[in-house]
Amino acid sequence: MKLSKKKYGIENCYLSNHCLPEWLPAIEANKKIYEVKKGELVFKEGEPVEGIYFVYSGKLKVHKKWASDKELILRFATDGKILGHRGLSTNNTNYPISATALENSVVCYIDMNFFHCTLKVNTKFAYKLLMFFADELQESERKMRNIAHMSVKGRLAQTLISFKNQFGVNEDGSLALELSKQDVSSYIGATYETLFRILNELIEEKAIEVSKRSIKILDLAKVEDLATREI
Amino acid sequence: MKLSKKKYGIENCYLSNHCLPEWLPAIEANKKIYEVKKGELVFKEGEPVEGIYFVYSGKLKVHKKWASDKELILRFATDGKILGHRGLSTNNTNYPISATALENSVVCYIDMNFFHCTLKVNTKFAYKLLMFFADELQESERKMRNIAHMSVKGRLAQTLISFKNQFGVNEDGSLALELSKQDVSSYIGATYETLFRILNELIEEKAIEVSKRSIKILDLAKVEDLATREI
DNA sequence: CGACTTCTTGATGTAACTCAATCCCGGTGG
DNA sequence: CCACCGGGATTGAGTTACATCAAGAAGTCG
User: Fold this and answer.
1) Among B66, B225, B81, residue whose Cα is nearest residue B166
2) Is the pLDDT of residue A72 over 80?
3) Which of A37, A224, B33, B82 is 20 to 30 A (C-alpha) from A168?
4) Chain A residue at shortest CA distance from B66
5) CA triple B207-B208-B213, angle to 5 deg
6) How far is the CA of B192 from the C1' of C19 (A)?
7) Which Gene3D superfamilies does this UniProt record tie to the protein (chains A, B) (predicted)?
8) Are A93 and A54 spatial neighbours (Cβ–Cβ below 8 Å)?
């Protein structure tokens, strides 16, 4: 991860979009823009929290380690999203999770001290962020219940629906998110092999179509049914 | 759940503890105190969000439904804690979870409109709440990973440790939280029978002692080991 | 073209769920 | 006071979904 030499504005950034206009110059003065290569780590679980990141472009995953080679992917972040906000806490000073770029990305870094100032000065932003956190918490707990009680097939169906909603589809109808099967399985909390078998089941049922790194939903009703029937 | 006739101050309440002193009269004027009987619902998943609650006394569980008879308990709330803050969100206007009293409790209700005002006026409180949400999110994601990858035994051990930290122990060393086995199993995301067997294993290993509705940790080192070894 | 991931599939193991039977205990009514 | 009842606690047996392991096929990159 290295400082970008190119100049980036502060247009497409959660922070600047919700701040007071008079605060923008301060942000401009304090931000740092980093270019992150595919596969590169933005920050790592256990490291001390130093700042917060806003995604300008690219795709990243937020994940929590497990044993030596396992992980659980908690969410994916694309442009306009926040990264590292889980480190926002006074008593816990280390990142509880890691963030890794899935493709070459550009992120905007804000020092934590300055960010805390921002929060205190921009009450509207703080309010906005609070709502964002409430949503994240809801989503997190929904996912937790699913992992606890739903079958892998149901979770996969839910994941497909949420990918569709979050990232949309390409012209050909495939999900606009290229993920390795490895990542998908880490996201739904299953092994690679299990995911593979379940994908095949769905293909046989003509519910989806898989090619290379992309997935297309053929029978949305069926997938939606699978995603909700067990709840 | 019915309005309390008794007068309650606003001392032991997350809201009043973190607000501007000059805002306290407004809170006083807007609060409603409810008495909740054991087993009674404070609010229910799916219902429209109308307000937020602060626990004065008692113990409650926050849970998410599943099928007809299953549930996942997300957390327990005792005095000083917040309830219903998951409903704090502009786009989602229904509670994503339910809250039920485990024993007779007293809660303080604040209308959501007034609460939003409070947030806008009391920036320090909003900030405090933001930190609280960050912590909740961390905890939620830690628990999610555990449910995804940890054995029931490991999760139980973690749960015992966290109960000890959150609720403390009685003079006799037993956890100061009386729960039915049903509730414990819903909290760790396992069935009643499985929990029972695992409890027995731990008893045979002389790690814990169980009587009626209380649990005592005998061998803390062992429980701590179980709680961390798989991570 | 060989080394090296990533994919695919089968075989096997097992933790945990499910269902059902029995046990235990407190309450209730005769 | 005791027999009876009901519901939670306990235990057992069977089933299943999923993980694990292993090994071959197929891309892919120098």
Assistant:
1) B81
2) yes
3) A37
4) A231
5) 165
6) 13
7) Jelly Rolls, Winged helix-like DNA-binding domain superfamily/Winged helix DNA-binding domain
8) no
Residue in the block written with tokens 């005792």: B78
Q: Do A148 and B91 touch (CB under 8 A)?
A: no
Per-residue DSSP letter, B10: S
B66 torsion bin: left (phi>0), alpha (psi -120 to 50), beta (else):
beta
Nucleotide nearest to A196 (CA to C1'): C8
Q: Which domain does A210 fall in, by range?
A: 150-228
Cα–Cα dist A34/B95, whole Å: 39
Q: What are the Cα distances from residue B184, in Å, to A17, A179, B63, B74, B171?
A: 44, 37, 12, 11, 22
DSSP A49: P
Token pair 């963030």: residue: A99
User: In sequence order, which residues have a C-beta less than 8 Å from that of residue A135 and are 6 or more positions away?
Assistant: B89, B91, B92
Which nucleotide minimizes the distance between its C1' and the CA of B190? C16
The number of distinct structural domains making up chain B is 2
User: Cβ distance A101 to B143 under 8 Å?
Assistant: no
Pairing of strands A208-211, A105-111: unpaired
Q: Where are the alpha helices (DSSP H) in B53-211?
A: 112-121, 123-149, 152-167, 181-188, 192-204
The C-alpha atoms of residue A115 and residue A123 are separated, in whole angstroms, by 12
Write A221-224 long-range contacts (CB < 8 A, 24+): A223/A157, A223/A160, A223/A161, A224/A157, A224/A161
Written as tens digits, the pLDDT of chain B (231 aa) is 888 777 666 666 788 888 888 998 998 889 899 999 888 899 999 999 999 999 988 889 999 887 767 888 999 998 888 998 888 887 778 998 999 998 888 999 999 999 989 988 888 888 889 888 988 898 898 999 889 989 999 999 999 999 999 888 988 888 888 888 999 999 999 999 999 999 999 999 999 999 877 899 999 999 999 998 866
Chain D bases closer than 7 angstroms to a protein Cβ: 9-13, 17-22
Is A144 in Cβ contact with B140 (below 8 Å)? yes
Same domain membership, residue A100 and residue A59:
yes
Do residue A103 and residue A160 come from a single domain? no
Residues A43 and A83 occupy one common structural domain? yes
